[in-house]
Amino acid sequence: MVVAQVFATHLANAQGQLDEYIRQGIASNQSIKQQGFILEKNIHALGEAKSMFLPSVTFSTAYTKAGGGRTIDFPTGDLLNGVYATLNQLTSTDAFPQLKNERILLNPDNFYDAKFRTSMPILNAELTYNKRIKSQQVDLQKTEVLLYKRELVKEIKTAYYNYLKAANAVRIYQTFLQLVLEGERVNKKLYGNDKINRTAVIRSENEVSKINASLTTAGKNEESARYYFNFLLNRPLTDSILVDEIVNLPAQDLLQNSDVNGREELVKLGISKEINQNLNGLAKSYIIPKVGTYIDLGSQAFDWKFNQNSRYYFLGVSLEWNVFSSGKNNYRIKQTMADKQAIITQTDYVQQQLLTELKVRQAAMQSAVAQYQAAQSQIKTSQTYYNDVAKLYKEGMAIYIELLDAQNQWVDAQLQANIALFDTWASYTAIERANASFNIP
């Protein structure tokens, strides 16, 4: 039996099944969906920040009904009644009536004011920095989504190789079971012909029981591996798994790669540093005055009148400049400077940590490759040894214990090679995660 051969379950081998499962896993993962919603929220926040540079129009109206309060006395009668009396005498008419002095209420009574106000900022550094920060927060969340995807890809690939390892172990034990069953049959026949003693029969029966127990354990391991893999894909745990045929070691090109700059953790810290720079600029923006403009188009009059005289426009430009704030802005600037140093220190630490992780993963893969190569050599040696002992046993020149020893060595070599093969692929996956070299679909 060739150790590296991987058997498909239920259906024939399908090339590219792992890539398809990765796409399914990313599409169905609930954590990634949650991060996607947060990204959508940040995109809307950026849209809101951009809209603050555009004109805004509001409508407002007010109506007042007043009585009492301050008044102004206007002597209308004292000023005009003498003149009106003289005019009446000259014209011999009553065309000019006598007037009373007026008392005018200062509070407007039965008065309305309705207007549309259009306003737009002309110069506002706070809005500029706010837009930059919101844009970088979108980039930060995109990186967070990519980080979740990359970790999920690692988990899916590792679970996939563990399943293949468990499934192939089952096939090895099944093949070996047929071998020991055949040995049990031959021994019973030889014992019936008085060619061997009962010890060989008992030993062969025990060997069958041992392999059955190992086969049961391997089957449970395969079942558990299938459950976990399906869990990662968010599908029924008992679903069957189509697998690719993996017969070779992965490429070893990543063993010499020491670049971790593509890791999302470092990208996030880089974006955080840029956000901090804009927060620093935002804190310093108080020295730049805010300039805006507005125009009111409306109508105001008494008794709800609306005509040419009631309509009006009002245009204005505003300027606001923070002259003194008791050092509040300087404290904000110092906070952003402290955050900057913290981010720089964290970046150096994380970069060294990720580089160490990469070196450890590369060493693990090198060890797995060496184990696989040694196991392959052991397979050839043990198979040759088994064939020789089996031939001697059939000729009566070897005892059954020697045959069992040869069988066990052969099977152990196959199992070790199977483990080493997929441990190598799992180590390769860990390196892909450590240097972010896998292209996320």
From TrEMBL:
The keyword ATP-binding does not apply. It comes from the Bacteria. It is found in: Cell outer membrane. Keywords: Cell outer membrane, Membrane, Transmembrane, Transmembrane beta strand, Transport. The keyword Protease does not apply. Belongs to the outer membrane factor (OMF) (TC 1.B.17) family. This is Outer membrane protein TolC. It comes from Dyadobacter endophyticus. The lineage of its organism: Bacteria, Pseudomonadati, Bacteroidota, Cytophagia, Cytophagales.
